[in-house]
Records
---
Amino acid sequence: MKITVTMPELKKGMTSAVLCRWCVEEGQKVKKGFELFDTETEKAVSAVEAEEDLTVVRLLADEGDEVAVGAPLFEAETAE
Amino acid sequence: MKDMKKPDWLRVSYNMSEVRSVYDLADRLELNTVCRESGCPNIGKCSKCGSATFMILGKYCTRNCRFCEVDHGVPVPPDPDEPRRLAEAVKTLGLSHAVVTSVTRDDLPDGGASVFADCVREIKRATGATVEVLIPDLKGDGAALDTVIDSDPEVIGHNVETVRRLYPAARPQAVYERSLAVLRYLKDRSRGGFVKTAFMVGLGEKEDEVKELIRDVRATGCDLLTLGQYLAPTHEHVPVAEYVTPVTFEKYKEYALSLGFLSVTAHPLARSSYMAGDMLREAEQKRNEAK
């Protein structure tokens, strides 16, 4: 199933965050729990993990971009 | 210090589905967590373990500390059913050690002490978990403090938060000496329970001030100590003056242990309830060995 992974709301009141670094590349298969990308909020750099097994299809944001909560980050394929 | 690059040791993992599972439970039971309300950086780590620190007495604090992300505002009346729902959450999560804190409620005659006591008793009755409460200063009111002490939590904590010199800037509605007096009172009156405090570094304090604070706290008889890096919630809050290195944290830990604390957690990401169950077990073990 094709899904679009969006910027999560990592903390109360967060409206956007900087995408610091991709930990995956297009075409890469990852397991649940694998670190997908680093994003910086006021208090920390969060390494956001995959919520399920997936294959990264297309990255939709660049490192350094400020991405709004809910905005697309990448497209992926999941098993279901 | 605006836009200072975060050091590697402030990188944390975050899994949305794990966080959601804990917070869906809190939402269903109409409970607040300090993890979410304070924007705790450890939220991913604790959610992975199915853990959370609950914040009772609403989500609006009557004080407005310049380092804290919890909302300042008009508080709501205490909810008499909150202790029952809190115990249900502790049971559902399977916590063996529950940590409960609150917003400061200077508007209530006892500062919320009776609600703390009800929560401790209900958690113990319904779950058998050990309980740690992290209380405000309750304005130093002995009767209110006695109310909490009499509920027999395993740990009573009250945070000194920062060094003496920085109170006016960071904690204008609190008093350094009063917080120390609260710790001393808790230690003198508690019947076998441990007394705990926590403070932040990175607000601009000097090493000798930190050591003075550690000595002052230890002189109250306080048993457990947690130190963590101050992280500014927004640019509107007191800015971070410095990212203190893990090596310096270790140095402070060794200093505190040399003064006789039973357990010390000193780490950039440590918060009041960080590894709280482990700290209690370490303190119990040391106390038993000393008998």
---
Amino acid sequence: MRDLITVATFTIKDMLQRKSFIISTLIILVLIVVGFNIPNIISKIKGDSDWNDKILLVDSENIFEGNLEALNSDESPYKFIVKNEKIDEQEIKNEISSGEINSCLVFEKGDNGIVINYYVESTVSYGEIPEEVITSFANIYKNVQLSKLGLSNEQLQSLNMPFNINTIETDENPASGNQFVIMLLSILLFYAIYFCAYQVSSSITTEKTSKIMETLITSTNPRTIVLGKTIGIGIVGLLQILSIMIVGIISAVSFLPEGTLDGILDMTNITPMLGGVIIIYFIFGYFFYALLYALTGSTVSKPEDINSVNGPIAIIAIAGFYLAYFSMMNPSSNINVVASMLPISSPFSMPFRVMMGTATTTELIGSILILLASILVVAKISIKIYSSAILNYGTKLSLKDMMKIYKNEK
Amino acid sequence: MGLEVKNVKKNFGAKLAVDNLSFEINKPGAFGLLGTNGAGKTTTIRMILGIIKKDDGTILWNGKEVSRKHVKFGYLPEERGIYPKTKVYDQLMYFAKLKGMKKQEADEAIKYWLKRLELEEYTYLQAEKLSKGNQQKVQFITAVMHDPELIVLDEPFSGLDPINTEILKNVMIDLINKGKYIIMSSHQMNSIEEFCTDLVILNKGKTVLKGNLNDIKNSYKSNKMEIQALDNIDELIKSLGLKVIFSKDNNYEVEIKDEEEGYKLYNLLAKDNIKVNKFELKKPSLHDIFIEKVGASK
């Protein structure tokens, strides 16, 4: 146990001191901060203005019969200046170029309805007329016309009756939860498990390249090295993900306009129980893939060979992720049960079945036990092959060589 | 007390790496493990330390299997390895902890050995910034800092300059005087002759010679002599029908069949009143014995 902590601590310290790790983490964090600032940056480039600033509405034909002022309610994000007299086109252009107004809408009656002439410096900078503004014009016009029919208030209200939707799902275990949150967490979990586990392989090959292996395996046993390294890299990976999440949350709160993520990121489905399930599957999923990578990492002697031996593991991981991902898109399909039981996909699938409320307790326990048993099997094979393969400094080992080693080590 | 290697065999596929190897180290001191490239020296060392499994035979330390549990051992592998990006102190501390040392004890040992091997100035430097010789000394510290009973050194002097060789030789003498059991594998015969009392010579996995170095050498008759004369003695040597191996400025190395031929030349030199500074009958060196034994087994 003492040696395990020593190997894990050394691995953590070694990784945290690596320039490549520090630089790549900093780049990710900077990109997150910059990403959340994109709306602010665009706004700065556009001169601190948006479509919302000052919009001149010209209704010289009195189409809205003086009701356009109603658009300037407290809730409106736009500031409208209403004029009922005709304004010369050149004058409009001058006002726009001088910055007195940002844009101007001139209303005219046409043969097939109302024509809106939209004057704006550039649609690239200021965009098209927002849909909700056009709807507001249409509503005002409709109400003006309806008022002329002499209808009572009740009759007017009955014409504008709101629609309330009640959804009744017929499935006994209907899926719930915010799909966007599910996808986001799924991708984050895949990234965390896949890339952290990959580091194990790279770390072992680097150690082989530096020819330190013989000194190392006469100082402690191979099992301690593999597990200590796996734990150490896992902790560093977890720290990296936590730092990404913390910077992401702080950036979202600090830089995004209030309410931007409402409805997109609904975290109400994330209960402490689900948090626990996510952590369990992160740890077990990471161990499953990290131990597979420990095996491949020990079979090569040169860093340039890592990618070729890791290819099959990458395919397994990606297949597992997509199996989980596609089953998530069809929450009621039986393929969900398969995806949440197979060790290659259960770390990505089961947390989201729990979130959606479609997994039974038996399925959850069964899935964890299968994953745990798979980890033990993979660990046994990996450590055995690692013990012999690390002293092989020649060409990379084939699957046949590995099977031979495993048989001899038995 | 000591190491017993008995009937040990190892094959790598169809290739025989070590065949029926037996030897004992039953008293402290240095033991030489010699052989040509690919003779099975490193495989033997790896089997002794349990890095690879033997196919047959027994390897015991004080009657028990050699393992970290039963014996504190240190190992300097032939493959020089180091964590290039890690500071010298940090990697020594890492290995010290893995070898069971407490932090304080490890700190004292690391500082002692860095000073002893003249590496103090590199304590907090990344290992890759050190010269190869200094990296090798760092690795040597890894093998000895935990005060092991059994020390296995695979080519300890290769790649070292004369100054560093001298430093390491003094450490070796200290370790022998402290009663350590040292197994030394080397191609440098003079180093083996300098330190080892017993040895085994391997060729293609087979034992071609083993035993006490003095006994082995004493079993050979003198086969050459070295003379430093003040005059030219070419004619004198020719008159006895002896073969000159090497001569320069009246210094001669002459091949002889036995000591008698040497004494004959000595008497002639005395009779002719030729002054000599040195006259030495020489037994075959370990180098000669090695060449003879390995050559004969080919």
